[in-house]
Write a structure and sequence with these properties.
It contains 11 helices and 13 strands. It has helices at about 25-35, 65-75, 90-100, 110-115, 120-135, 150, 170-180, 220-235, 280-295, 325-330, 395-405, and strands at about 5-10, 35-40, 55-60, 80, 105-110, 140-145, 160-165, 210, 245-250, 255-260, 375, 385, 390. The chain has a 6-stranded mixed β-sheet with strand order 2-7-6-5-3-4, with helices on both faces. The chain has a 4-stranded mixed β-sheet with strand order 1-9-10-8. The longest helix has 17 residues, at about 120-135. The radius of gyration is 28 Å and the shape is elongated. The two termini are about 20 Å apart.
């Protein structure tokens, strides 16, 4: 059955701050205490996330749920391995080679208090980390740092080193720094070791969406939750849709992400925030519709005006000049659902894509017609489609022509 869930992405503007949540001070403290101490060869932020294989190990076995959850928001290619066991140099090299074969980059997690003042357990695993750094890029994350880095010098030998609080927000922010989801601009207020004195720290640009509580961008958590839930639940109760997923982002931070209801009215599959959707014509909703909503709100747009009032391209030779914007927005304007423009670009398949049917002239001839596509770019074929396909700069006129000449359905209908 067709999935009737949808994704709503709000880009919020204006300030609606009412009150701070109790958790916001913890976030602020974690944000101020998370520092990048090393970033050799610009290892951070990680790139190529569609194929990059990332291994993660918590050296002392400490739970890191918020760290792992945040990582998987950026890429599914994350695997947590078993804790490194005590091993000699020979076994350590074998283990390190196994990780180098399985992953492209490795993240080593350690809590300072686990090994601080306990050199023997640390020394058993030092050989493994040293062998790992010789074979692949290693990023070390030290939680709750104090003076342990003076003893655990191997972590300073990693390609990148992050220190952060061990709490939920510290784990999340440390993971975001791996991907550039949070800006790094903090410096150490106290020395952590001889190699990392007070004032140590490196900067990192914010290049991807991050995750923060609403108060971090001047919004009210409770108001946001209650308002969105009320709107979505009303739609579900009235059977406008069986389920929904709502994501709110502001100032480069995702501040709300919640799933509601089910994929179908039968209620057999709950909506999850990790569900993937066929967004299809989402550009209509996220670009043109948003502009029309603004103009309408300002009183400068008439929904019942005919198409030609705001679009001169259909004043002549068109059966669509009297269609209203209200009809088109309601999908009730008798328009055909789609036009196979590509058919009109091929020499072997006729010149009339708006007919919505094959009109072959010759078979097995897939050469492009003039002013459509080319395999190499030049001044006229300047619109890049792929590395080996370029569109003519005036092709949009052919698209308008196909729309003008396309027939209307005989009767209105959704």
């Amino acid at each position: 059955m067709r999935i009737l869930c949808f994704l709503l992405t709000f880009l919020i503007s204006g300030s609606v701050l009412q009150a701070q949540s109790a958790a916001f001070p913890s976030y602020q403290l974690a944000r101020q205490s998370t520092v990048i101490l090393k970033n050799a060869d610009r290892q951070l932020p990680l790139d190529g996330l569609d194929t990059l294989r990332i291994g993660v190990v918590s050296l002392s076995g400490d739970p890191i749920p918020a760290f792992l959850e945040t990582m998987t928001k950026y890429t599914p290619n994350v695997s947590r391995t078993a804790t490194v066991v005590r091993m000699g140099s020979s076994a350590a090299k074998d283990w390190a080679q196994e990780q180098a074969d399985a992953f492209d980059v490795f993240v080593v997690i350690v809590r300072d208090e686990t090994y601080r003042g306990r050199p023997l357990p640390y020394m058993y695993k030092r050989a493994s980390i040293e062998a790992l750094t010789e074979r692949m890029p290693v990023i070390s994350v030290v939680f709750d740092p104090q003076q342990g880095l003076e003893e655990m010098t191997v972590f300073g030998e990693s390609q990148a080193l992050i220190v952060a609080p061990y709490n939920e927000y510290g784990q999340s922010l440390a993971a975001q720094l791996l991907f550039g989801g949070s800006q790094a601009d903090n410096r150490l207020t106290e020395a952590l070791s001889t190699n990392f004195p007070a004032g140590s720290g490196q900067s990192l640009d914010h290049v991807r969406l991050g995750y923060a509580p609403p108060e971090a961008v001047d919004m009210d958590s409770q108001l946001l939750r209650d308002s969105i839930a009320a709107i979505v639940r009303e739609g579900i109760d009235s059977m406008a849709y069986p389920g929904a997923q709502v994501l709110v982002a502001r100032r480069g931070q995702v501040i709300y992400h919640q799933a509601f209801g089910y994929h179908t009215y039968e209620g057999d599959r709950p909506v999850k925030t990790t569900d993937i959707y066929d967004l299809a014509s989402v550009t209509k909703v996220s670009s043109a519709l948003a502009a029309i909503m603004r103009w309408y709100g300002e009183g400068s747009f008439d929904l019942d005006a005919p198409l030609t009032t705001y679009f001169d391209g259909f004043r002549r030779r068109s059966n669509k000049d009297e269609l209203s914007y209200r009809q088109m927005l309601a999908h009730n304007a008798r328009l055909r659902p789609w036009i196979p423009y590509w058919q009109g670009t091929l020499k072997g398949h006729g010149r009339y894509p708006w007919r919505n049917r094959w009109d072959p002239v010759r078979t097995n001839d897939y050469r492009f017609r003039r002013k459509t596509f080319a395999l190499e770019p030049d001044e006229e074929y300047s619109v890049r489609v792929t590395d080996s396909l370029w569109l003519h700069q005036e092709y949009k006129e052919k698209i308008y022509k196909a729309i003008r000449k396309s027939p209307l359905n005989e009767e209105p209908g959704y």
